Amino acid sequence: MKKIGEQSYFLQKPVNICGASAIVGPKEKEGPLHSYFDQCLEDEFWGEKSWESAESKFVKETTNMAISKSGIAVNQIDFCLAGDLLNQCIASSFGLRESNIPYFGLFGACSTFVESLILGSCLIDGDFATNVLCASSSHFCSAEKQFRFPLELGNQRPPSSQWTVTGSGATILTKDGTGPFITGFTPGKIVDMGIKDANNMGAAMAGAAEDTLIRHFKDTGTKPSDYDAIFTGDLGYIGKDILIDLASSKGYNIKSNYTDCGVMIFDKEKQDTHSGGSGCGCVASVFCGYIYKMLQKKEYKKVLLIATGALMNSTSSQQGESIPGIAHAVSIKI
After folding, report:
1. Residue 140: beta bridge partners?
2. Cβ–Cβ contacts within 10 Å for residue 253, how many?
3. CATH tag for 3-174 (out of 1.10.150.170, 3.40.50.300, 2.60.40.1120, 3.40.47.40)
4. Average pLDDT of the segment spanning 307-333
5. Which residues pair with 164 in a beta bridge?
6. Pairing of strands 277-278, 163-164
7. What is the rounded CA–CA span in Å between residue 153 and residue 141?
8. Residue 148 CB: number of other CB atoms within 10 A?
């Protein structure tokens, strides 16, 4: 049986991660992780006529770079699993429409990248695929226009708000290789904290992160110290502090080896990003840029990556709905 406990799973054969790449925008270039990204742009438009078209270009170029790094021919990639924040996931579908790879569009809000890693691992472990492309993206300007207010209005952002990452991350999962390897995963359940403030995503998602984190520990018999590092993406500063408190109330001290991708990608004080980064491109670019390279260098030998998402849209917010959260976890080792 591959199922462990209530909702965790071990892979019969660990799935290899290879060919990771990350491309980010100009604000991310000014952040502390800039040297880990494959390409940092000077312009959010990247030569395109719209922010949405620019985001599609992020997806196209990032996935092409990941494929090139992997050394695997495009016609040998069995599936592409990708998603973003735009309506009907057009950044992914438009960016990949020339790839000629069987495509599944995913939506898990900001948890989409880890969702793709989980489903890709299942396809490979179940012998339905040998090579799977996983990707996700986001763009600050397109996300603001869709979920909040057009930038031209110049609305003031509250301290609890997060800055959507302009960027994309992509990687290739393969049946064979030298690692890093995905060894198991804990898919999340929908958790609704009753929060209705669309400018406080970290608080809305923290409950889902806690639910998945604690379930993972209980199912697998592990504890925080079994991992060199635990990453969430993207709770930001507020959600990170809430998760630390929630985990502590359940008897798990994660403070010493835990951080959040939304906290890592920006310099809060110098860049005025309030509660940190967010978006599908946040965890994807931080993993494919920084975490993956640290695993390759064996600076980290075992990590737990938990991607969080707010399952809402602009209509649900306008109708006064609360914001359900989701969090998916993967265990990765070298």
Report:
1. none
2. 13
3. 3.40.47.40
4. 94
5. 278
6. parallel
7. 12
8. 17
**Residue 301 exposed, middle or buried by CB count within 10 Å (0-12, 13-18, 19+):** middle
Report the 10 Å Cβ neighbour count for 152. Answer: 7
Q: How far is CA 58 from CA 83, 120, 238, in A?
A: 12, 21, 29
- Across the strands, what pairs with 328? 307
CA separation for the pair 242, 261 (Å, rounded): 15
CA distance 157 to 186: 34
Assess contact for 216 and 54: CB atoms under 8 A.
no
Task: Give the pLDDT confidence of 113-140 residue by residue, as tens digits.
Answer: 999 999 999 999 999 999 999 999 999 9
> Which residue type occupies 37?
F
Token digits of residue 261: 């991708």
- List the alpha helices (DSSP H) in the chain: 26-29, 51-70, 90-95, 112-125, 140-147, 201-220, 236-249, 261-264, 268-271, 280-286, 292-296, 314-318
**Contact indicator for 184, 212 with CB cutoff of 8 Å:** no
CATH 3.40.47.40 maps onto the chain at: 3-174, 181-333
- Contact in structure between 200 and 180 (CB atoms under 8 Å): no
Does the pLDDT value for residue 152 go beyond 80?
Answer: no
In Å, what is the CA distance from 131 to each residue of 84, 102, 236? 21, 12, 33
CA 134/CA 319 separation, integer angstroms: 33
To the question of pTM greater than 0.90 for the whole model, the response is: yes
Query: Is residue 249 exposed (0-12), middle (13-18) or buried (19+ Cβ within 10 Å)?
Result: exposed
Nearest Cα to 80, choosing from 107, 98, 101? 101
Task: Give me the CATH code for the 181-333 domain, please.
Answer: 3.40.47.40
Counting Cβ atoms within 10 Å, is residue 221 exposed (0-12), middle (13-18) or buried (19+)? exposed
Q: Kindly tell me if the per-residue pLDDT of 112 is higher than 80.
A: yes
